[in-house]
Design brief:
The chain has 203 residues and is mainly α. The chain contains 10 helices and no strands.
Length: 203
């Protein structure tokens, strides 16, 4: 009697196809690790941000609870639970979370870029008197006397190692000029972030 499995390595053809379609153990492990990492990223975000992420309430609650736990072992166990909840999400839910995190990273890059651009211009104003002339040409309504006084005071602050009051005021003026030149609303969020980053860097 002919063997129906001959030539198929012990599997019926449909059994082989089903076995072949299953994800490998290494693939499953990679997916589990990626979801665990995604959960850790969410735990690291501020609570108000986590509350805005599109996700099921039970997953959000697990993340918020993990953020409150200070005990190392307790936090580790809760983090494992967060990972378990993350693995319960479907592909669309995971994609929505990832898109939200990616959008925040993009804003963070914009914040940093805006801050560095303003810082470079401020440094140029302090080092080169011609920079003020260039700025005035771009912004004729600028209160040049006020800015000239701030530049002089900022130079004095640096020379005498004093708190950077005028130095920061120059940053604020440059930020306002940038906002006005770009139409305001489109860049306010990024520039507010740049202001926060600048404060953190100087504190």
């Amino acid at each position: 009697m002919p063997n129906p499995n001959r030539g198929s390595c012990g599997f019926q053809s449909n059994e082989f196809e089903q076995e072949y379609d299953r994800p490998s153990k290494s693939q499953l492990k990679r997916e589990m690790t990626a979801l665990q990492k995604l959960g850790e990223e969410l735990v690291a975000e501020p609570r108000d941000r986590v509350k805005r992420v599109p996700m099921p309430e039970d997953v959000r609650d697990a993340i918020l609870e993990c953020q409150q736990i200070k005990d190392h072992e307790g936090r580790r166990r809760q983090m494992q639970y967060v990972g378990k909840k993350m693995r319960s999400l479907d592909e669309d839910e995971i994609a929505a979370i990832q898109r939200t995190l990616d959008s925040w990273r993009g804003l963070s890059k914009a914040d940093t870029a805006a801050m560095h651009a303003l810082e470079r211009r401020r440094e140029k104003l302090l080092k080169d008197d011609n920079a003020l002339t260039e700025l005035l040409a771009q912004h004729p309504d600028l209160d040049v006397q006020q800015l000239r006084t701030l530049i002089r005071n900022a130079r004095k602050e640096q020379a005498e190692n004093k708190p950077p009051k005028a130095y920061r005021e120059i940053f604020q003026i440059l930020k306002q000029l940038q906002t006005a030149s770009r139409g305001g609303n489109a860049t306010e969020a990024a520039e507010d972030g740049a202001d926060e980053l600048e404060d953190e860097q100087e504190d």
